[in-house]
């Protein structure tokens, strides 16, 4: 698994998840509950992980829709 996205904004995470589902790319979200608990403090961001084989396609989908991906 490779980190695709790191955000404290749950709307960005939901949008990214929907984009990936539309591309038939499975993702796994880490730290969702703790991020929601601490709100917008940016202490515990939501991390979205994808398979390494899907990373290139996933990052293109994110960038095409204005979402910055993790390096």
From TrEMBL:
Name the UniProt record assigns to this protein:
DUF2007 domain-containing protein
| A Pfam family that the UniProt record links to this protein | DUF2007
Q: Where is the DUF2007 domain?
A: 1-64
Q: Which organism is it from?
A: Aliishimia ponticola
